[in-house]
Design brief:
Pfam families: DHDPS
Distance between the termini: 40 Å
Oligomer: single chain
Binding site for pyruvate: 56
Shape: globular
Structural class: alpha/beta
Active site: 143, 167
Protein name: 5-dehydro-4-deoxyglucarate dehydratase
GO molecular function: 2-dehydro-3-deoxy-phosphogluconate aldolase activity; 4-hydroxy-tetrahydrodipicolinate synthase activity
CATH superfamily: Aldolase class I
Number of strands: 8
Order of helices and strands: HEHEHEHEHEHEHEHEHHHH
Number of helices: 12
Strand content: 5-15%
């Protein structure tokens, strides 16, 4: 039985670990046992909110069976009082079908990925979310990465009973602040651009943030959240400043590449390898970190670990 929408909203007001998926060296297979071990390291640092099958989890490089397998492994691996919100994308029918399977597995909610379609109409986007929400009892989290899911659409969709929140992954404090003022206090707005701007977004109403580096430095992410909750922003900035170089590396394109943020997932996976976990290779259309970026990652990783999260 899925948790109540009230309990799901409470679970979302935390650090959301967008979990990376370890592949075999030839990239063909998901290493489910290693994946579950990686999750145990997050729980050991008191992480309790998990988002499998997001962008950090290379959703679009997974088959349908692999997506289901990753979600099932997540539910099996984490404690019963943890919150699992599984990612889904594609056609309305595809998302509803996945939501039904995820529900049977025992997730607490679904996160509908940012609209990915060559041709869009704003009213069609609204209908997409409304139709999905109407066809599942699970709580639904929207995911905004750009203008395709407008703030007007989010505000109107926030009144749907089982649309419980939004992962806001656009670095626009002004727009985010206006959105928070437009939605009900119970609707959960999550900072979706991770630790770099967590203090700023928190001041404007973000009640949690997503993390990628939490896959390999979960204690640092949790310490930042604790400092923000305690309104100890001096400590929060200190922790953020230790984390920021690694986050900046993730935002880079990598050498000989015109596309932004291609380092995002491979940098997370390399950090996991540095932490003694299993990150491993990425699948195409991504590539692994260059040797020079690996050297920088090692330096930045040491800064995070050596900080003591003070």
């Amino acid at each position: 039985m899925w948790m109540s929408y009230k309990d799901l909203k409470a679970g979302l007001r935390s650090v959301a670990f967008t979990t990376a998926v370890p592949f075999s060296d030839d990239r063909r297979d998901v290493q489910y046992e290693a994946y579950e071990t990686n999750l145990e390291a997050i729980e050991a640092a008191n992480g309790s909110l998990f988002i499998p099958c997001g962008n950090t989890g290379e959703y679009y490089s997974l088959t349908r069976d692999e997506r289901i397998g990753v979600v099932e492994s997540t539910v099996d691996a984490v404690a019963g009082d943890s919150t699992v919100v599984a990612g889904a994308a594609g056609s309305t029918k595809n998302v509803v079908d996945l939501a039904r399977t995820y529900d049977e597995i025992g997730v607490d909610g679904i996160m509908i990925m940012h609209p990915d379609h060559t041709y869009l109409h704003e009213e069609g986007v609204r209908r997409y979310y409304r139709d999905i929400a109407a066809r599942t009892d699970l709580g639904v989290v929207m995911y905004k990465r750009g203008p395709e899911l407008s703030d007007d659409a989010i505000a109107s969709l926030s009144t749907v009973e089982n649309i419980v929140g939004v992962k806001y992954a656009v670095n626009d404090i002004q727009a985010f602040s206006h959105l928070v003022d437009r939605v009900d206090d119970e609707f959960v707005c999550i900072n979706g651009i991770a630790e770099r701007f967590a203090p700023s977004f928190a001041l404007e109403g973000a009640e949690g943030f997503t993390t990628g580096i939490g896959n390999f430095a979960p204690a640092a992410s949790m310490a930042l959240h604790e400092a923000i909750e305690a309104e100890d922003f001096e400590r929060a900035r200190r922790i953020r400043n230790r984390i920021r170089p690694y986050e900046n590396l993730r935002a880079e394109s990598g050498p000989n590449n015109p596309f932004a943020a291609a380092n995002n997932v491979p940098a997370v996976k390399y950090g996991m390898d540095l932490a003694g976990l299993v990150g491993g290779p990425v699948r195409e259309p991504l590539v692994d970190l260059s040797d020079s970026d690996k050297e920088r990652a090692e330096t930045y990783y040491a800064r995070i670990v050596d900080s003591g999260y003070a």
